[in-house]
Specification:
mainly beta, about 210 residues, about 15% helix, 12 strands, globular, twelve-stranded mixed β-sheet
């Protein structure tokens, strides 16, 4: 998460006669955008901030691929568990497990080799315009990438009005949409031992060290 807390807009007024109408519209749009960004930033920091969080998720990629699991984040550490796959990152090394293949792969967490799809899901909050609407007990924040941005092009985030916890995320990458339902969200992780790879649990698995010396 970057430190910038506002979306920058630049307007060019070609005709003086339209200046007032443009100014009024811009003020309204900027107000909505600022509110959207402030709420987004609070929720984003609840997930990826220094206190960490845990949540359950269900993913649906245009009805073709579905999965669900649990994930924990804290700073540069993470852990996720699914029926077939699991991963532990202690901040120094990333251990990815394929239970079906009985395989453990070890990566440098910063290496692009860790995930061939990682570049397609690049995300910088400052590369988007923001808009917010309210529906029942939720806020719906829409993000649209500015021109030239690669990775995620559009996103919609549903946030609980009362708790500010995320409830769902829908993102568009290339030509397909991915929907993530989020539940059992808890902010704050005290026991960081959960991010340590449990070697004994996978002692009979094949290990491949993909870290570059």
């Amino acid at each position: 998460m970057t430190n910038t807390r506002a979306v920058q807009f630049r307007w060019v007024y070609f005709l003086l006669a339209y200046m007032l109408s443009f100014t009024c519209a811009t003020a309204k749009d900027n107000s909505n955008s600022r509110q959207a960004r402030q709420i987004f930033d609070r929720t984003y920091n609840m997930v990826f901030g220094p206190n960490g969080c845990s949540l359950s998720y269900a993913v649906n990629i245009i009805g073709v691929y579905k999965t669900e699991g649990n994930i924990w984040y804290k700073g540069n550490k993470s852990k996720f568990i699914e029926s077939r796959y699991a991963a532990w990152c202690d901040g120094k090394d990333l251990y990815r497990v394929d239970k079906k293949k009985k395989l453990v792969e070890i990566y440098n967490p910063q290496s692009p080799d860790r995930d061939k799809y990682a570049s397609k899901f690049k995300f910088d909050p400052d590369n988007y315009s923001y808009h917010i609407t309210a529906k029942d007990n939720d806020f719906i924040i829409t993000l649209n990438a500015i021109k030239g941005v690669e990775g995620v092009k559009h996103a919609k985030i549903v946030i609980d009005k009362r708790t500010r916890a995320p409830k769902s995320l829908k993102v568009k990458v290339l030509f397909f949409w991915t929907t993530v339902k989020i539940y059992n969200f808890h902010s704050g992780i005290n026991d960081e031992s959960i991010f340590l790879f449990p070697r004994q649990q996978f002692a009979n698995y094949t290990t491949k060290d993909k870290r570059k010396s």
